[in-house]
Amino acid sequence: MDTQNPSAPLRAQARIAGNKHPNRGHRAGGLQHDNTRHTTRFTVIGNHLAQHQELSLLAIGLGTHLQSLPKGAPADIKTLAARFPEGATRIAAALRELEAHGYLRRERVRTPSGRIVTRTTSCNQPAAARHHTGTLTCPVAEPQRREQQDRQEACEERESPRAMREKRAPRKQLPAVPGPGYPAPALLRAATDLLADLHHHDPRLLLSACDTAHLAPGVAAWLERDVTPAAVRHALTADLPPEGVRRPAALLAHRLTVQLPPPPPFRAPAEPSPGRYAMRNCDGCDRGFRAPVPGPDRCRDCRNRTQESPLT
Known about the structure:
With 312 residues, this protein is mainly alpha-helical.
């Protein structure tokens, strides 16, 4: 009667909150849960994702994050790399894991503005349709093709929005340039040669054939106004912006128009020199002299003597 059971508990043990089976959770070092019921801002995640046997921990965490995002939230590689410390390469690999197991679908679509973007769809139950149709809700993409698209997307995202706008914007037309009054072929040829030689004086002034044809009449207008080719070249190449020339043809068109010199002063045409008349013999002294035909029959000396002595 006095024998006591040393293994008997002194008092009844309290059941752990949330543990419906009293024989579970007593293992030393085992996981314990301190759960509080969520009423707002929560996402239901299936254990097929949270405890997936083949996905990496990064892919499971990224899949959970994507399912918690609202509709329309950015989910591209650049945005995710800015949000998490893993970097673009590891995040792209995790996205491919999710895509290979049906938790993600990515499509390349063209926006109304013409830009190619990636549309991402997160699938919370990729195997739901398998029981009915035998296929996945989210189709699996080829790993090599998806890896190549990820690299292309990363390159596109590295470009600044301004660079993307400039790439999509159409090329602006060059400003109009003055033209010569008489576009002689030799004058236009000299103007074209002058423009084609500008890049030897400044490498930034390398012009295309189309730009050269547009600017040649403007240079010809300068040459027509008695401006030497050296003076035209100096006006086009002097004091260029030190930070660089983004559109050299537009800069040259502006200078040809704004700095156009005035026409040269008016010069009256020189009187034509009298021609040399043919030799004739004087009827009075038979000496040779030059005179127009018809004209006087006597030389100047004979005509003077006749005027001095009219009676002879």
